[in-house]
Amino acid sequence: NAGVTQTPKFRILKIGQSMTLQCTQDMNHNYMYWYRQDPGMGLKLIYYSVGAGITDKGEVPNGYNVSRSTTEDFPLRLELAAPSQTSVYFCASSYSGAGELFFGEGSRLTVL
Amino acid sequence: AQSVTQLDSQVPVFEEAPVELRCNYSSSVSVYLFWYVQYPNQGLQLLLKYLSGSTLVKGINGFEAEFNKSQTSFHLRKPSVHISDTAEYFCAVSEGAGKSTFGDGTTLTVKP
Question: Is the Cα dihedral B45, B50, B51, B54 positive or negative?
Fold first, then answer.
């Protein structure tokens, strides 16, 4: 049972480069989320989606974009990477808006 | 807007001692409350949740939490900790619209 799968697990980017973090879930969850986790801090919501074709900004959306063309996939796009985007990124999904979150293992991104 | 405050950033405790990790929240509406645990280099996983009903909630690994509406608290407790409980613990609140807000985390270190 795969759950939530994120790729890549590690990536180093140069300033100004772009990349996409992939996230897929096999639980048929409607809700999907992208969070970032900085050292000593909790998780900050970047973007979320309540279903295919619907996305919305979270607390810290600047510098990121998302799409949700299918129920399973929710990729996060970083345009023009900056050192401030160095972080660990977590994708999560939930069955409902009030339900528990199921997390992927995280993607550690370093921007140099 | 909802917010979460975890009152202790680090909690050191000896093995087999009891522990309490404190969490206060603020919200203008009814909330759903969660505790998640994060082991090193892993994603978060659910410990327990309060959706409705009994204010004392039991979770995995012998943890429990009590929802106190008047004090807007959701403290996590365990009567006897093990070395394997060493991890980061996050309190989270959701107003049911699909967005969870996380506290900054409490590092629990269990010493032999």
Answer: positive
